[in-house]
Amino acid sequence: MTxxxxxxxxxxxxxxxRGPLCVGIDPHAALLADWGLGDDIDGLERFTRTxxxxxxxxxxxxxxxxxxxxxxxxxxxxVLERAVADARDAGALVVADVKRGDIGSTMAAYAxxxxxxxxxxxxxxxxxxxxxxxxxxxxxxxLARENGAGVFVLALTSNPEGPEVQRARNAAGTTVAEAVLxxxxxxxxxxxxxxxxxxxxxxxxxxxGADLAINGPLLAPGIGxxxxxxxxxPRVFGAALGNVLPAVSRGxxxxxxxxxxxxxxxxxxxxxxxxxxxAGA
Length: 281
Fold this sequence. Notes:
Blueprint: H1 7-18, E1 22-25, H2 29-34, H3 41-55, E2 61-64, H4 67-70, H5 73-89, E3 93-100, H6 104-115, E4 125-128, H7 138-146, E5 150-156, H8 163-166, H9 176-188, E6 197-201, E7 218-220, H10 233-237, E8 244-248, H11 250-253, H12 259-277
Parallel strand pairs: 1-2, 1-8, 2-3, 3-4, 4-5, 5-6, 6-7, 7-8
Helix pairs in contact: 3-5, 3-12, 6-7
């Protein structure tokens, strides 16, 4: 039995002390070019190191998107490993944006990669896809709880294709998204101050159409380049607003490679999010 402080408690404290902001680390080719870097392993490493050194001591959460590292093969994964470790050492929580979802021993292996203590990619939380059935996520949920980590399960995502699956209804009339949120609510029952199991709910939604009070965090992508803003958060999240972790990527990263400009942009975003969510900054 682990004695590690649960992810929900650590996230609540980080959001209150540093402001409710998650900054994505998304080193896609166009952004590397904007920074004057090559679309190669050297550019990836310089970009990632700059973001971590500038922000890990200040923001609540950093969220590296694994795809942008995986495309460089083993050397890219090595950069990701260092980024995760360095960010956590500097005090930021790390959400590995991997969107894994599988069954049985394969799901357990994914869990071991990101949620087992001592693993090179061990993170504070991961993103997971429930579309092979919520129950298939059990190995990751159990290992996360054992190690004081968390998960964010896709529920109502910011991409326009999402509703064809997430708004679909079962025989009882419940949407897929509502069923996912109900399961997360049950997982988090009795946890204080916040459960470790969260949902991904896009800030771009016209309306949630579901009960978002799951006693867990709500990771809210879609702010900035996808068209949403901090002002949209009260409309989308309603009474669950205090548990929202807004995610911004290009809105901060486009100010690089100057470290001071990156920090200033992150501070502006955190202040804006705090104004609309009521969390501390």
